[in-house]
Amino acid sequence: MYCPYCRYPDSRVVDSRTTDDGLAIRRRRQCPDCGRRFSTTETASLSVIKRSGVVEPFSREKIVSGVRKACQGRPVTDSDLAVLAQRVEETVRLSGAAQIEANDIGLAILQPLRELDEVAYLRFASVYQGFDSLDDFEAAITLLRVEHDQAASGVTADGSGTPE
User: Fold this and answer.
1) What is 55-74 written as a DSSP string?
2) Residue 44 confidence (pLDDT)
3) What is the CA radius of gyration of the chain?
4) What's the pLDDT at 156?
5) Is the distance from CB of 98 to CB of 47 less than 8 angstroms?
6) Given this model, what pLDDT does residue 32 score?
7) Which of 19, 93, 127, 130 could hold 24 in an S-S bridge, CB 3.0 to 4.6 Å?
8) pLDDT score, position 67
9) In a 10 Å sphere around its CB, with 0-12 CB exposed, 13-18 middle and 19+ buried, how is residue 104 labelled?
């Protein structure tokens, strides 16, 4: 790491701390040549492979902007969207891969968005999953209703009861 002040090609780490979301490390460094201190932030790189084959860096902001469109007119706050984007990033990072398909990110968005707002979920899913007809919407709504009924009766998705 070059010193940003004197361009000396080395520095020593004085202190390291994780950031608030735990996905990056902030390091205080000191240059052994000029003695000045500076901070760096380290994150594990994560790249997204788009459908076109283009590779670009992962961006929470892109998740927020994409989901924000589905949430227009819904009682969803910017804070809610930031938490959703963080959950999605944590999910895709758990795969351990340095590159992830854009489609996998869309799949990772669906469940947290369903939990946040079902109408926004239906809007997002209709575009993401390419709903072609009213039948597609009806099938998605039926599935949501079944899950609501199961949750209300204490039955899990596999048909068994919840352990007591």
Assistant:
1) EEE--HHHHHHHHHHHTTTS
2) 81
3) 22
4) 58
5) yes
6) 96
7) 19
8) 95
9) middle
Give the closest residue to 101 by CA, choosing from 55, 44, 45: 55
Q: Where are the domains of the chain?
A: 12-43, 47-147
**Mean pLDDT (the chain, rounded):** 89
Which stretches in the chain have pLDDT values below 50? Answer: 162, 164
Number of H helices, E strands in the chain: 5, 6
Quick check: 124 and 143 in contact, CB under 8 A?
no
Please, what is the Cα angle at 52 between 136 and 108, to 5 degrees? 50
In the prediction, which pLDDT does 149 show?
Answer: 85
For 45, how many CA atoms within 13 A lie in the half-sphere containing its CB? 7
Distance CA 130, CA 136 (A): 9
* Angle at alpha carbon of residue 70, lines to 46 and 104, rounded to 5°: 30
Give CA–CA dist 121/139, Å, rounded.
14
Residue 111 · residue 84 · CB < 8 Å: no
Instruction: Find the distance separating the first CA and the last CA of the chain, reported in whole Å.
Output: 56
Name the percent of the chain lying above pLDDT 90: 69
